Amino acid sequence: MENAKGTAEMQADLAKSKVGVDIRTNDANARTAEARGEAEFILQTGTARGAEVEAVGLARARGYEAQVRALGSNATTLVNVITALVDGSSKFVPDILVTSGGVSVGAYDVVKEVLSRLGTVAFDKVAWANHLAQARRWVGPNFSEPAPAKLAKQDDLPG
Question: Mean pLDDT throughout 93-113?
Answer without folding.
Answer: 64
